[in-house]
Amino acid sequence: MNNRKQLKVIIIGMGKMGKIRLDAMQRHGGFEVVGLCDNDLSALQNYDYPKFDNWRICIEETKPDVVVVCTINLVIPDIVCYALEHGCHVFSEKPPGRNLGDALRMRQCHSNASSLVLKFGFNHRYHNSIIEAKALIDSGILGKPVFVRGVYGKAGNTNYANEWRNNPMLSGGGILLDQGIHMLDLIRYFLGDISEVFSSIDNLVWKEIPTEDSAYIVFKTKNGEIASLHSTCIQWKHKFDMDIICDKGYIALNGILTSTQSYGEERITFYKKDLQLASGKLGNPIEYTMCFDTDSSWDLEIGEFYDSIVFKKPVLNGTDNDAVEVMRLIDKIYRNNDRRI
Amino acid sequence: MLKSFQLNEYSSLKDVVQDEKIAQIERSLAKDFVLSQMSFHIEEFECPICHSDEHTNFFVKWGIKYLRCRHCGSIYAVCSKSFVKAYKEDSAIRDFRISKEYQDDAERMRHTNWVEFLDWLKFRFFRFNGARSNLVITDFGNRYKGFANLVIADKMFRKYQLVDSALEMDYNVKQSDVEAADIIIFANRIQQSFDPVADLAALKPILKNDGIIILQSRLGSGFDILTLKGQNDKIFPFEHILLPSKEALFTILDEAGYEILEVTTPGNLDVNYVYSKKDCLLDDNIFTKYMFEHSSPETLREFQRFLQKNDLSSFVQVIARKK
């Protein structure tokens, strides 16, 4: 029997992410779904919950404790602010709007309703390999991270040019804002705030789309740590790789578990530097690898959100500050490349 | 439970962790003791884990019969508690293990492993409990002074408590007198237990609520154990009287009141053990015999990696906490 306090929740936007969030909340057991909303009602036909095609009416009529926002980027700030103004806790998908202005607006709304929880879905922080990497770094076994090198690539598809994600009025940006933002968030997670950015934002292959197909960025923190990120939809396969070089060792994150498993097995490999040749071979230290075949990230993320509402625990990941800082970086990168949207 | 697989990538097949001469002396002392206790017959008994009385004869070593439970797959020796108690207290074995010769060999062969283990221990504690220091660690039955000294010297630990160990150190303490620990190391203890559930349950009062227990054991479902049966030099009475299967280990921990956080089989030596005995493999074990006779070191290393990754090595490491 489920004894958890039940939070009344609505989900706005029942595309892929809405379904994933619904499943996670049902597994959690602490959420009572009181409404689903999508501007395309046919997306709701397989559900027995009250259905809405207008998010304002949905919020007003259902009076939920929690609003989960899984819509296109354009409307995220309006819904988040409206929900906060109506006394609802909010979980919103990333990106936090289309631009820095959107993120700042949502933070301001939240500061006017600070007793409410606002959390953004920077979901990668809850993947097992990322959790392990953070624990490794925190343990100090490998010393201090000094360099992060990330590649996050997508295959594209035959309809790629026509996807809403590549309509800047709806999305606000291209592959960097859509997918690279996860890795950007992880770079901040591992290294802290970024002070300098050098970048090249390009359309190397998809010349006809208004948003970038490739973002190559070098970051520097105020303490001098360096990071690089290549976010691209012209990898022609799905790829997630991140190297974290520390002063006493190294961490490699390869692959990330998704429902389709198209980014491969999720693994973390690490080794300590071995200049004394404990392994017996120069340049070939003893490596440790952990592989994961279960993606519990959605459950952990929604669990943290629930705990922050019910047990007043702090939001650890995906805070409004995380949202603003990551959007500040993206804003700077786009402006530097004359991609201001 | 965190479903993870841990592999350790070495640049070559990992060598043994004990000089063969030392291993032979240890085995021979154990054998002398076992043979001296063989004056009366003991009835076969039920599986110490699932209590099924259905079993197959697995092998006989030095006159001691090992059975394999048909129900849970665990392997156990037919012997009495008093034999095992006397074995643990036998002065010849005990004196040899605390001798300079034995300790020096361990220091030489295992130092790197100990450093790795200590790093791993810290990493896993941080993983499940966050960054902390001033930890209390209780180590059961450790027979290596070198490892104890490494822990004592590590600033992360405030207190090292050595329980039920032959080592003569200032850190020895009775189980009834220990301070509740952040970490309990329970290595190679299940293999000498007649009631593993009770033994593990008895640790709960001396483990903090958010503390973790690190359990290491040989597994009755591991590759070298099932392949070599009685030919396995590393398995002998009364050092090993219970080899639970992986599934049985889950049962033990559950019944003892623990939540399993992580299970891995990071063993490195299954393939080495079998390779060293490949001439003893039975003729009906055709595939294994063929593989060990015809495979390159690279192939065998890859096979060990496969065992590690798929929880099929005979060395298991479990992290658990109180439910």
What does this structure look like?
The complex is a heterodimer of chains A (341) and B (323). By secondary structure, chain A is α/β, with parallel strands linked by helices. Chain A has 9 helices and 14 strands. Chain A is globular. The mean pLDDT of chain A is 94. Chain B contains 11 helices and 11 strands. Chain B has helices at 20-36, 81-89, 91-98, 100-129, 145-153, 196-201, 223-228, 246-255, 270-276, 286-294, 297-309; strands spanning 4-9, 55-61, 64-69, 75-77, 135-140, 157-163, 181-187, 207-218, 242-243, 258-264, 315-322. In chain B, helix 4 (100-129) packs across helix 5 (145-153). The chains are: A alpha/beta (341), B alpha/beta (323). Chains A and B meet through helix 5 and strand 14 of A and strand 1 and helix 4 of B. Strand 14 of chain A pairs antiparallel with strand 1 (4-9) of chain B.
List its traits:
heterodimer, A: 341 residues, 26% strand, B: 323 residues, alpha/beta, six-stranded mixed β-sheet, 11 helices, 22% strand
Task: Give a short overview.
Chain A is of the alpha/beta class. Chain A is 31% helix and 26% strand.
Strand order of the largest sheet of chain B: 6-5-7-8-11-10
Number of helix segments of chain A?
Answer: 9
Query: Beta-sheet strand percentage of chain A?
Result: 25-35%
Q: Provide the helix percentage of chain A.
A: 25-40%
The arrangement of helices and strands of chain A along the chain is EHEEHEHEHEHEHHEEEEEEEHH
Distance between the terminal alpha carbons of chain B, to the nearest Å? 12 Å
Taken from the alpha-carbon principal axes, the silhouette of chain A is: globular
Strand order of the largest sheet of chain A: 8-9-10-7-11-12-13-14
Q: Largest protein interface?
A: A-B, 24 and 25 residues
Largest sheet of chain A: 8 strands, mixed
- Structural class computed from helices and strand pairing of chain B: alpha/beta
Low-confidence stretches of chain A: none
Helix residue percentage of chain B: 25-40%
